[in-house]
What does this fold into?
Amino acid sequence: MKKKIRFIINPISGIGKKDLIPALIDEHLDHTQFTYDITFTEYRKHAAKIAKESASDGFDVVCAVGGDGSVHEVGTALIGTNTKLAIIPIGSGNGLARHLHIPLNIKDAIECINKDQSIQMDTVKVNDKAFLGVGGYGFDAVIAKEFDTHHRRGLRGYIYVIIREFFKYNPINVSIDLDGKVKTLPVVLCTVANSSQFGNGFTVSPKSDVTDGKLELLLLKPFSIWS
It folds into this structure.
């Protein structure tokens, strides 16, 4: 029996035209293995809604066609279901896809789906909110929030937001409880890493592995202009 796969395309993810993607899927997907349909998102959190409905409707695989935001929405919606997550990375950073060595070329990413190889990966929950790759409390969280609403996508937009926010940012204080000993200190970054990078090849936790059952806590103390 063929497996059912649904592709959820974010039309505003990254840069470049998205209207060519359905034809590439039809051309390169192995039709002897899969039946498929394609849905475009229309609003924020729409991908999560579609993914949940897809799992309920018995889809074997849901593929997030977008960037880290789309992967987050689809992936966290599938936690606890029997539906697998696939990724065609077309976003600005593609952090989780890069960590998993999924090709950034659309055709090659589809070929990965055709191989039908899967892993069971760890996920993270903080304050009842789940994430898959890297979660931050500090400058990285500010950048993620600001870039999400910034009009310019791609690496240039990402760099612009980093430079703009860098000189406005004030370090935060965090309290770390380690074996009953609490230490409070100022930090620029407080990052919980399940995967290795933020995106665009910016690796922050090279030893992180999404299948090892462990998380890494990364703290960056204030330096230079914050000293």
Observations:
- The mean pLDDT is 90.
- The longest strand covers residues 3-9.
- The chain has two domains: 3-118, 129-226.
- The two ends are 63 Å apart (CA to CA).
